[in-house]
Amino acid sequence: MEATKSDKKGALSELRVIDATQMLAGPIAGTRLGDLGADVIKVEPPASGEFNRTRGFEDQQSNGEMTTFLAVNRNKRSLAVDLKSIGGKEVIYELVKKSDVFLQNFRFGTADRLGIGYEDLKKINPGIIYCSISGYGSFGPYRDRPGQDLVVQGYSGSMFSVGAAGDDPTPSALWGADVMTGYQAVIGVLAAIESRHHTGVGQHVEVDMLSVVMDCQLQELVTFLNAGPMPRRLEERSAHGSIPAPYGVYKTKDGWLTLAMVPLPILGEILNDDWLKTLTSYNDGHKFRNEVYKKIRKRFTDKTTQEWIDICDAAGAWCGPVYNYEDLVNDVHIKETNYIVEQPQFYGGSAKTVRPPIRMNQTPPSIRRGAPALGEHTQEILSNLLEMNAEKITQLISSGAVSGVKE
């Protein structure tokens, strides 16, 4: 497993990004811009760095570094700087002059109090693309509330789209609110860059998690807003309250099988069930959902998952297995298409990761750097990029405005 390096420059290789974010939504945006070639400078507090450097999933680490940090901070340089200090602000202001994008996901009002809000930085660099990532946006009664994936899922209404009528609300395990918000931030940034090509002027891009999760439910919400019904949980458990049976997950002899939008007559042929063969209307899958789910729930336990996949594939029914992570990484498709690669680590060795999901034949994404050590690139950035002399750098380090890597 090798890192996805390339001799070709990335599509965004002329772009410099200041990434003043932490946790997940912001860092994934910075990582994706970095994968596409941008020079991403991660701004972190000198003492402990961003949140995920010291807190992760059950303190799981690779070569002494938190895996949750490694996951979403590759292709970045780390600048350890105290944003509350005069010297730290001076460094950021000089960096803004030489940068294209500024990402931040502070609580509402924090960036302005620190003197690094959009209006502050626009005066320094009118072309700056300033991207604010938040839970609920910069206006409205919730703007001061903390935005976190699970909390936003609860607000969004999405937890009542799956399961059975008597089930508790069911959250997603995908961190969808965070990750999709990061992706939407990248889309906004790229659109603003294209606009700047024509106008020469930057702008303020705002992305909030609640808006993104609502956008992910466009079909459900447009249906509710215009026709009235909400996704309706059934008596029988289903994978989505608005999709006709047999959409769901079924126990097999040795595991689990997913079935997508399979026409009921085809399902009838697969299961040799005469009643299912008579349900020829698409709406029958809605009308008889409870009956269908109840009837077929245990019909798949007499064969293995792979046997059912072979049968369903032959019949043209959309299906697949339900993997755990061990199954996933050992799957022949995952191996042959090189989904799992490696990224270097500062403290020795390398960490396995997932390759960038985008492919481009002329300017391919790549993993050029692993996640940086805290302050690993502070002196490099001050000296080479900002052209500060050794005396000035020593002064900033002595005052605590910046710090370098701790071996």
TrEMBL record:
<dbReference type="InterPro" id="IPR050483">
    <property type="entry name" value="CoA-transferase_III_domain"/>
</dbReference>
<dbReference type="InterPro" id="IPR023606">
    <property type="entry name" value="CoA-Trfase_III_dom_1_sf"/>
</dbReference>
<dbReference type="InterPro" id="IPR044855">
    <property type="entry name" value="CoA-Trfase_III_dom3_sf"/>
</dbReference>
<protein>
    <submittedName>
        <fullName>CoA-transferase family III protein</fullName>
    </submittedName>
</protein>
<dbReference type="InterPro" id="IPR003673">
    <property type="entry name" value="CoA-Trfase_fam_III"/>
</dbReference>
<dbReference type="Pfam" id="PF02515">
    <property type="entry name" value="CoA_transf_3"/>
</dbReference>
<keyword id="KW-0808">Transferase</keyword>
<dbReference type="GO" id="GO:0008410">
    <property type="term" value="F:CoA-transferase activity"/>
</dbReference>
